[in-house]
Amino acid sequence: MPDRVRIIGSYLSPYVRKVLVCLHLKGVPYEIDPIVPFMGGDRFSTLSPLRRVPVLVDDGVTLADSTVICQYLEDRHPQPAVYPRDVADRARARWLEEFADTRMGDVFIWRLFNQLVIRRFVWGEETDRALVARTLAEDVPQVLGYLEAAAPAEGFLFRDLSIADIAIACFLRNAAFARFTIDAMRWPRTAALVDRTLATAPFERLRPFEDEMMRTPLARHREALAALGAPLTADTVGTATPRRGIMEV
Length: 249
Ligand SMILES: N[C@@H](CCC(=O)N[C@@H](CS)C(=O)NCC(=O)O)C(=O)O
Known about the structure:
alpha+beta, Glutaredoxin, four-stranded mixed sheet, 54% helix, binds glutathione
């Protein structure tokens, strides 16, 4: 359907979520092929050379990186803006988005979520408990300490909801899937900022699909999402057999 943006990627990916939240905020219609990247077939490799999600296909444009996609959406659909207007604030918002995508991705996805969810449910492997313990004791406090110094007492990081708040909250949503919540006594501003962000309409709209994915076996994801009325694509670039990723983390 050419008048709808096509997104490839699971509702459980924080990078996919970042893009979906931007689409909802901007009111851009989309359809989704909700695969986890490890289940992508050969067509997925063609669309996403790093075999990562999200992928956006729109009007002849194919993009395979959430940051590039969000900037494309901002250029295509400037209002409402998700990047601050002021040049310095816009740069700082992009930096916080980058911090979220790299450092928070490393800590919350590749260590916690990967160890506690992906390894078990995709690969049937044991969790590395020592790695999880070390991450919780050392890396998580460092990340949250950094965010606490940047977080506002009220409202969002740059007045209106921006890509910075969105990116940060996306990772904490996955952390919650791995049963992690921010200690609000120790990092009160960050905890409140994330709560405020996750309570916005776009995050709320996505929540039922995410929750359903967390309790549904991979093979039944599409069927379960269809029952909930998700805007699914008619076809999929997914297959039944998992493949290891091609990138070193
Ligand atoms: N820089 C990329 C990172 C995307 C990413 O790492 N996505 C994960 C899913 S949460 C993925 O596809 N992992 C599969 C792999 O790395 O093999 C972006 O912002 O889109």
